[in-house]
Write the structure tokens for this entry.
Amino acid sequence: MKTFKTILVVLAVAISVISCSSDDKDNAPKFETENPLAAYYTATGFTTSSNFINSGDYEFGLAFTPTVKGKIKAITLKLPAANPSVRITIWDYTAKSVLRSETLNVATADVQVSKEISELALEKDKKYMITMNSNDWYKKNKADNSNATYPIIAGNISIIEYRWISGTSQTFPTNVSANYNAGDLSFDFQETE
């Protein structure tokens, strides 16, 4: 009988431990995935859009800073023309070094594609940049062509500026423009703590 009671006590403790550990998992913070592009366009007022197709090769994109620690899980892109091999680069802004290089297949014009990537950890308050190299893009600006005021807060991402440079090489862009964005290139970000 004593053995039976011991077994019951051991089972009760085991069930309690299992229950607590699953409660811990249920209470762990869960963060939604966010893509800053739509909030960026809303905040900048870049509502006028023009299509540029076969308009010269450029490396261009957005410099940004996460306001929380997180990770990039996917890259999103939409172009006004099909392109089977668009090079996307994620840069360390300060070092001007390549952190990640990916190729996206935009099979159909005007349809957003998303490519899941192996997660890229981003540090809070560190500057990064995401660029594409293409001769096709949407140019988005204000109707009066006035400048946007940076930084733009888009969820947990602070967008610092838009940069570009001419050519097909994987070169950190040196030109800054505040009155338009050529895109639509973005990423899926998830806070991690």
The chain is about 20% helix and 50% strand. The chain has a mean pLDDT of 89. The first helix runs from residue 2 to 27.
